Amino acid sequence: MDVLVVGSGGREYAIGLALSKDPAVRNIYFSPGNGATLQLGQNVEAEDFEALADFVQEKGIDLTIVGPEAPLVEGIVDIFRSRGLTIFGPTQKAALLEGSKIYMKNFLKKYDIPTARYIETSIMEEAAEFIDELDPPIVVKADGLCAGKGVIIAQSKEEAKEAAAKMLSGEAFGPAGQRVIIEEYLDGYELSIFAISDGQEYVILPAAQDHKRLLDGDKGPNTGGMGAYAPTPLIDEELYRKIEERIIAPTIEGMAKDGVPFEGVLFAGLMIVDGEPYVLEYNVRFGDPECEVLMPLLKTPASELFYKAATKDLKNLQVEFEDKYAVGVVLASENYPYGKSKPSEIIIDEIVHEDLAKHAHICFAGVSLIEGKLFATGGRVLVCVGIGDTIKEARDYAYFLAGQVHFAGKKFRSDIAYQALEVNES
Length: 426
Ligand code: AMP
Ligand code: GLY
What we know:
With 426 residues, the chain is of the alpha+beta class. The chain folds into three domains: 2-91, Rossmann fold (3-Layer(aba) Sandwich), CATH 3.40.50.20; 117-184, 2-Layer Sandwich (Dna Ligase, domain 1), CATH 3.30.1490.20; 189-425, ATP-grasp fold, B domain (D-amino Acid Aminotransferase, Chain A, domain 1, 2-Layer Sandwich), CATH 3.30.470. It has helices spanning 10-20, 49-59, 69-73, 76-82, 96-99, 101-110, 124-133, 157-168, 237-257, 290-294, 302-310, 354-359, 391-402, 418-425, and strands at residues 3-7, 28-32, 42-43, 63-66, 87-88, 118-121, 138-142, 151-154, 180-184, 189-198, 202-204, 209-210, 213-215, 219-222, 227-230, 263-273, 276-283, 325-332, 344-345, 347-348, 360-364, 367-370, 373-376, 380-388, 405-406. The strands form seven sheets. Strands 3-2-1-4-5 form a five-stranded parallel beta sheet. A five-stranded antiparallel beta sheet has the order 12-15-18-24-21. Helix 7 (124-133) packs antiparallel against helix 8. The longest helix is centred in the middle third of the chain and has 21 residues, at 237-257. It is globular, with a radius of gyration of 21 Å. It binds adenosine monophosphate and glycine. Adenosine monophosphate binds next to strand 7, strand 8, strand 16 and strand 17.
């Protein structure tokens, strides 16, 4: 089959890479893609979703897979479906689980799915009143999409009130912040759980852990993610069962009951407090870099999984995973996440070590092809992924590969998967 992948990051590269190894896949297209997806297929520019749907129809592309949230929230799935095209991802309405934190919190409340205690409001007095009831730290969230910046963890009531006032006035995030959530702070550790659903059935993928902070030891500012690994030993059978029974199953059932069946990747950002899972957020797409470590663990052909999920046919698929670990280390550019960096050429040493060539690979993200050469042009430039029989082995391969890749200003965390290694050593 021929497949189109919508997006341009490492996540989309990872999906494309899995498809490129799938014997059922003939041609792969990316829109817009990046300077390296050209090695896997063809990049397509399209003015809007209608134009992209025209292209898909003309080429007879069998399946479209959407990577990022923006096109989903803007309704790409609805447009493709209305034209009879097969597309993997949630509809615009179902994408509100990510697009509106208020929709999400109210949904969780309705179906009794565990989450932090909260109020939603557009009135400053109400916000202030609830803030006075809580002990700091206090969490203030803008309702809409704010490119990952809409969450403030305030260390005092004053700071929380100030953040709420800035959001409600529109000063902080414009219309996206004119309704806010104020919620209690949950103190625990974070886990990402991904489920692929066709609206009724679902498959839970191996649990991954992301590293959101820029610097080693989880210090420094938040980023899109500096590295990830899967499966994580931070989850045991019992916790897994709780997550499935209390969170994933009621979410998929609840969305179906509400007439907005969730098709696509449900990404539950969880906080585990004293062994109990709480939903911090939902995303309606794969995490990045989590996708880069999950794709290589998939034993079932990627095209089959995504096609069956997009055609309400998951019940006829037994999804299998490799009995291995994957660790992904993000190589970022000099000024990430503060600002743009000067483009710099990427030089990759010839990989002569056979084991390394076999057990590690690169997922390219913020890269462009300039006069035939690959340049680092984005914040997160690429992800070095190592695969192994243990987390340590996978991590060693990932870092070995990271040492073979060079560009001016390259930076990365040196401690990806440290919590897992601590658990394994103790
Ligand atoms: P969100 O976009 O809602 O996931 O928030 C971004 C990050 O803020 C999360 O990954 C957590 O690290 C943190 N966070 C959000 N809500 C809470 C909460 N209620 N308690 C503690 N940390 C939170
Ligand atoms: N890695 C976190 C995210 O994709 O949102």
